[in-house]
Write a structure and sequence with these properties.
5-stranded antiparallel β-sheet, 4-stranded antiparallel β-sheet, carotenoid dioxygenase activity
Amino acid sequence: MLEYNRRRVASYMVLAHDVELPRFNEQYNLSKYRFLYGVCESPYAPSYAAGAVVNGLIKVDLENPFLGSNTHPDSTAMMWDQPGCSCSEPVFVPKPDATREDDGVILSVVNKTTEDGSESCFLLVLDAQSMQELGRATLGDFNALTLHGSFVDANGVAVAIN
């Protein structure tokens, strides 16, 4: 943004990869944060015949000059993606004794549709630092009708609310 009459210039970062439903560690709310998690386009989408919405999850390092470009050799963006999967909004849950901004897990409800049209869904748990799968819990043989998610701790205290 340029304002010639006020002699002001503002710069904005533009992500080089699509990120929808962005989330971050809410302990950094109203503060500068480095890591952003979101839903992103899947490389499986163009070739998937069932016609389902197919997307993955992405972690973007906002301090990296190649923001979110998972095709650039210097990119630090990390993805979780599998054929036929459509992820809901990621929810960041910090470890109780976290010392780093990305020290925690990512939760997402994932709908899976196979080529024959069968449906299932599961709760996906990813390591927030590496985006590697830690586990999943089967929810059922249906697709969940949700895009958003929230998390409260054992005491009912909101940790990540959308």
